[in-house]
Amino acid sequence: MKKLVLPLTLLFGLIGAANAFDGDAEAGKAKSATCAACHGPDGNSPLAIYPKIAGQHAEYLYKQLTDYKLGMTSGGKEGRSNAIMFGMVAALSDQDMKDLAAYFSSQRMTPGTTPEDVIEAGQKLYRGGDAERGIAACIACHGPRGAGTSLAGFPRIGFQNADYLKTTLEEFRAGTRANDMNGMMREVAKKLTDEDIRVLSQYLGGLH
After folding, report:
1. CATH for 25-106?
2. Would the CA dihedral through 160, 46, 151, 154 be positive or negative?
């Protein structure tokens, strides 16, 4: 029975956090103009190096914004570090970040594509991982369609820009991005080869 206490406590805490989210999508739309240059007016970035944030879970988007703010105030020692985003979040209040997260999450992420040559290898790694190398299957956290789950904090990665995913996995592998829950992504990414990262990034672009 004692073994259930921590998981249940964590679950109820996550449920409470989800219910407490109070972003205003309409207010967020009015505040989103400065985001459009990189992410597009509706969150579907026209530039592959930046992420699509349309349809992303609001709680996840809010966490990233607050992590950027923490990175800015801590000189990069905590949170998430990115010079461009530091400038974007500098003047945002907590409510601004919630409103922006609510707006972009309410939009629809545009479909991407998966090159034919990576489908077999990408599907194998995404769905089954690699037991010999100790690589967990991506599907376990992100689901069969890459939709993730807002309650557990796992982001939507299906249809995401491949170039952005590639950079993100490389950052997790190098440890230069360290705002993942319990270091889960760093643990997975450090076992990935350059080819693994290329294949996964391109496979996810069209995952649906």
Report:
1. 1.10.760.10
2. positive
DSSP-H helix ranges across the chain: 2-20, 25-31, 36-39, 58-73, 83-89, 94-105, 119-128, 139-142, 162-174, 184-189, 194-205
Token pair 């530039």 is found at 47
Place of tokens 């705002």: 179
Residue 85 labelled as part of a binding site: yes
Any idea which architecture 116-206 has in CATH?
Orthogonal Bundle (1.10)
Q: What is the pTM of this model?
A: 0.89
* 141 annotated as belonging to a binding site for a ligand: yes
pLDDT reading at 1 higher than 50:
no
Say if residue 38 carries a ligand binding annotation: yes
Residue type, 135: I
